[in-house]
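A quick aside before the break. I want you to see a complete sequence-to-structure record at least once, exactly as it would be stored in a machine-readable document. Don't worry about memorizing anything.
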Amino acid sequence: MANWSTYLTPGPAELQLGLFCLGVGEQTNAQGATPERALGCHALVWVREGRGHLLHGPNRQLAEVQGPTMLWLYPGVLHGYQPTTRWRQQWVLFGGTAISGLTALGHLNPNKPVSRYADPRPVDRAFSRLLRVAQAHNAVQTAGALYDVLAAAAPEPSDGVTERLAALACVVASVQDYAAELGLTVKQLREAVRREAGLTPQELVLRTRLSTAKALLAEEELSVAAVARQVGYEDPAYFSRLFTARTGVSPRTFRRTGSIPGPISSF
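That is the input. The structure line, written in tokens, reads:
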């Protein structure tokens, strides 16, 4: 693998995409420690082959690296590589206003600088595509490819608790009841949903109910009261206030303006 790099300078319109690439490249690191430094932006380093350690953070902690492994580097955080064999790696520098949302959703966690995967192939394919489109200087494709890498490289869900909770969301129950139904303690439920979706169980239930209500309003001939009952609210007035507060429009307005268009009539 030949060493190469491409650095990018996003323009004003590209900065508005929310996530932008500042550089990509491939390189081989020989055995031995590299100089320590701190970056001015976020970076992902995909160590495809090699073994060693990542020095990371103000306490200069060492994390074991055994490729294929993803290294997550953060602005202003000291890091250095200590390969004990040759490293073959790909890298990307990035930034944008989407960083705060990605952090809140658990995709960026400075406390976990190293990730390994049971199946690294999706990450490898996503990273290879990112490098390819970034060199073509297509900002939209590059932003999309960067999101794909972040999604593929995110911590792998352990047991699908989020999906199982969403399936129960329209059943009227407390968090304690949901946890018991899933065979978990409340603490385990909260930790699992936070890890998998970056949300609390209450927020996941609420969002699932609202999404279900939107589908019913858009696609079924049901009254607002009937929709409210189907998604877990006996009081239609409360449901309407909640729906309006979270979506910005009332259920009736959503039915008129937010639903899928019906077939065009023939005259």
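Two observations worth writing down. The chain has eleven helices and ten strands. The first strand starts at residue 4 and ends at 7. We'll return to this after the break.
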